Structure formats: structure tokens, C-alpha cells
Amino acid sequence: MTRDDRQPIVVADAGPLIRLAAAGLLDTLRGLNRRVVLVDRVEDEFVGDRSKPFAAEIAEWIRRSGDELLHVQTITGEGIASLRARARTPKEDALLKSALRDSGELALREFVAHWRPTESASALVVYEDAKVATLFLDSDFSVTLMTTLAFAETIAEWGVNADAVAALEGIAGQYSLKPALVGTYQADTPPDMRMLPQPRKK
Asked: How far is CA 189 from the centre of its chain?
């Protein structure tokens, strides 16, 4: 794909940021001159518990990024935040535990249904969780999905960071990497005619 400085980057699950942080590539995202989009429940997955690996580094990167990041609120996220913030009955505790189990996917499903790119007609989505690709099959805006490795290959080709692939492959023993997969869905293509991401052509 060609570079488009207006196309926002959606980080669709916790996997990409954790792997980019482990590889020392977080600031590469800021070098792309694009808005980075984080859905509330997805964001909480990697910074909600600061004892998790790279949670502190990602939280600091989010702080440094300021307005370069777009934090998307969802009803799912707001409902969980509301439950967490107040004293709960045992029944509400059970409800919260149940809601947290699939909250990232639910919030992302809500995001796909209601969010629209404002700077361009399309978005670039970086993911590791295979469920993410199936969610975006139903998007009614144009989207290009890339696994983290495919994203690293792309930014290396764009000349943003020539060492991105080597850095990412260097942490493969610590974090598994999905193959370099890419899928492009045009807004006017019916969902049942869209293919899941395929191996990236070089």
C-alpha cells in the first residue's frame, strides 16, 4: 500500500502496542504523522494494570503523545467505568466480572458500527487478535488491516524505520507474532465478498 499521511491508525487490540513496546518501536507510530486511535476498553487492557509487562512504558507513551491520540469512548467502556467507580452489590460484582470478560471485543464491535474516519475515507488497522479481522468485515468505511509484523514491514518500506522488522523479530521469542497478513476492504464492497487478511505480497 502507498503512504497516506491523513489515514488514521487504529490499534485494534492490546497485542500490537505490547509488541511494539517490547521492540522499542512505540515512537515509530508518532513518526508517521497520523492520528492513532485507541478504543477505551482496548486501551484499558494494556494500561489498566500497571504491573503488566510494558504497561508503564505504554502509559508514558500515551501521555507523551497528547493530542496525537484519539481516545474513543464506548457505551461498553463507560458502563464498566461506572460500575467500577461505585460501591457494588454482589449481583453488580458478578455483572462487572462478566462484562470485563469480553469487553475489548464488545467495545471494538461498537466502534466499528459507529466510528467514521474524519481525516480520510479510510483507516489503517493494526491487530494481533484474529477475531479483530472478522469484526472489520462488517465495517462500512474503507479499511486496511495489518498484523503487527506486516505493519513493521510497511513502515520499513516507507523509510520511517528501516530496522523495524529486525527489532520486532528480535522479541519473537518473548511474544509470538502473527505472520505478515494484510486485508483491504472497500466501503462499497459487500461484507460477504470480503476476504480475511492474506499473506502480504512483497
From this structure: 23
Which residue type sits at 151? F
Q: What is the pLDDT of residues 19-44, one digit of tens each?
A: 999 999 998 887 788 889 999 999 99
How far apart (Å, rounded) are the C-alpha atoms in residues 200 and 151? 10
Q: Using CB atoms within 10 A of its CB, is residue 30 exposed (0-12), middle (13-18) or buried (19+)?
A: middle
Strands of 69-72's sheet in order across: 69-72, 36-39, 9-11, 122-127, 142-147, 181-185, 198-199
Bridge partners of residue 10, in order along the sequence: 37, 125
Q: What is the DSSP string of 38-78?
A: EEHHHHHHHHSSTTSTTHHHHHHHHHHHGGGEEEE--HHHH
pLDDT per position as a tens digit, 171-198 = 999 999 999 999 999 989 998 899 999 9
pTM of the model: 0.89
Q: How far apart are CA 129 and CA 137, in angstroms?
A: 14
